[in-house]
What we know:
heterodimer, A: alpha/beta, Ubiquitin-like (UB roll), Nucleotidyltransferase, domain 5, six-stranded mixed beta sheet, globular, B: alpha/beta, five-stranded parallel beta sheet, 9 helices
Amino acid sequence: MKACETLGIQLERVCGEKATCGKCKVRVEEGFHQEIYSSQKHLSPMVEEEREFFSQHSDLTGYRLACLARVMGDVVIFVPEDSRLTKHIAWKGLTERFVSLLPVVRKYYVEVPPFGREGVGREGARADFESLVSEITTRFALSDLRADHYVLRALPSLLRETEGKVTVTVWMNKEIVKIEPGYWDVNLGVAIDVGTTSIAAYLCDLVNGQTLAAEVMSNPQIRFGEDVISRISYAILAPNGLEELQIIVIDGLNTLLSQVTKQAGFQPKDISDVCIVGNTCMHHFLLGLTPYGLSRAPYRAVVQRALDIKARELGLDLSPSVYAYFLPTVASFVGADAVGVMLAMEPNLEAETVLTIDLGTNGELILSGEGRLLCTSCACGPAFEGGQVSSGMRATAGAIEKVRIDPDTLEVKFQVVGSPSWSDGQRKTNAKGICGSGIIDVVAEMLRAGIIHADGRFDSSISSPRLRQTAQGTSVFVIAWAHETALDRDITISNSDVRAIQLAKAAVYAGASVLLRKVGKTLPDKVLLAGSFGTSLDVDSCRTIGLFPGCDEVYAVGNAAGNGARLCLLNREKRLEAESMVQKVEHLELAKEKEFSRIFLEALSLGQYKPLASTKGSMKDL
Amino acid sequence: MREMIQAIVEGDGDKALQETERALAQGANPLDLVSNGVLAAMDEVGARWRQGDLFIPEVIIAAEAAKEVMAVVKPHLSEDEVPTAGKVVIGTVKGDIHDIGKNIVKMMLEAGGFQVFDLGVDIPPEDFVEAVTRWKPDVLGMSALLTVTMLAMRDTIDALEKAELRDSTKVVVGGACVTSAFAGTIGADGYAADAASAVDLCRQLCSR
């Protein structure tokens, strides 16, 4: 894996080198290749885990897992396309919505008098900064302005070069964070949503409130494991692990910031405000705070309140005195991203009961209604983001995102990210795997077509060329034939893939039920599905698999967390709202809720929820 | 007996009980009903789980049915006839409060004829040591869901060694984050990936 990275090929590493996901498989070429004698023997022998993996994947002869195999001599390696970590292109949609414009940073153009040639000497005794402040105070009624030494260092030459004509950026009516030459009324802010899997940035014009550009990238920390737990372990256990995780994500943000500003014809130094949301782990990593307390019960975060940090202290390549605002977090596993979601949803606690589900590796659930605001988080596992699924992948180029199965013929058609048309069974597509929304579709459609039963079992009485048995006696269903894909093999869904979705959906369902019971309800009036799925998520499929307690009014709302960050950028009162919301919200720890286990087990079956036939005996204790 | 086995595997507790009572009335050997009936049924459940045919809820219901049958057969057995596969102390390690996985293992072990002492969650090493001293189990099972808490397993093994209990008790570990390699490095006697394998593993260790 290190060798591949040295050569600039990033590999998938979903399981964090546990030899369970097999996503980093590479093929070793035997024999001479351009004067290099390559052989399996030039790699370290397989360790037990690796042997175990390949004993269950007999179709992968000649392959090795890059995470475990070490290079001992010359080898020529073929990296299959699905083993490569590719650029994230799925769109984190951002709905434009109404908010009054009241940013924390404002620009003021001033002409400081003594710097005209004639003026020199007249007020020569007055210091540069005091002259500037006095001018701003007189013209704009802003008093007691301060500035840090970075601003002061740049001030004298700037005033002299421009003969005192400068545009001053003032933060919170009290601090000068930037001085630009001449008249420059461009005021830009950036909202950033740092997710476990992907990072999205939205460049906003703080003069008119428009979103000028948006960019998404994979979270580069994925190298250290797909889920937050692997990364927490790395931060705690590896020497300098935390520092490494912080540096790599900040580097990623710097790349993202230069891309998003370039897209709109600007530069990162034009940005005067930053708003950041992320789950509590991402938040801690960005700030270089130890995740130790998050790693074990009773799960304590380092800090909960909102923070204003100089962007330069984080290592962000922006104008040095600009601030980055971190939204407050609720609890160890309900982060600022959930606060962002709550802000964006504008919950009206006295009206209907609304259940908001932010789907991801860490599912966040928010319930508002009956005068209360409750939230919790549930461990879904990476299945909704394409992890731990045999043909799973993130929502990037080549991911199957929509699937339909004809219930009579069991024929399948699918849509790949970025392509508007359905597959026709013949044409080659660039399909490489299935992403979360596609997997939800597959399970829902298989259920509708009777290929699987509600308990997740494949129906063995069905005969179709698409349904086949593996050597291990398990079943797989073919979604895309090899000739329709960019691979040289079929894309399939296996029995254990269905199980992964069952576990994930049961966690969401049970979490939602526990929240509803807390406000004395069994069903919500409205369900909002948020997450990076954007528009590709099919709400009917979610309903079919029984993701949430039955409800007719269901909407997919896209990246609500990012939207919340954008609101905080555009309107400073939203920050206060977020901070007071954190005080109001009641957080539940599901592992401590007695009913959770039982509902979780009952919700493992697909489709309409029904309590298990047997509720006597030990089921109650679980 | 075939009907009883079938009923347990299908999780039909009522039918399993009926069949058991019928067999007993017809003079079936109660010991035979347990070892070739209930335990055989749970073996089949384990096998079908591994094949992907059964999932957690079905396995739990089957284990429940098995327990009910056991309760009916037991009075027909004399004290020393009651087959015990072994004694197991089980718990989730310190810092970890996840219990679903551990509870499923517990149920499967009980259905497989083990006597199980469940300590609960967030159990510090000294509590494990105390339980091992008190109950003298054949096997101590530890569960951890989070990578970070799995190191508490090593602490517990160290504490057992210090208390000179390590040689008399086999230690097995499991949980989402645990691997067989990790089990090896902390000096555990075994690792099981799921509840069905946990039962097999405990049987193996107890028969040695």
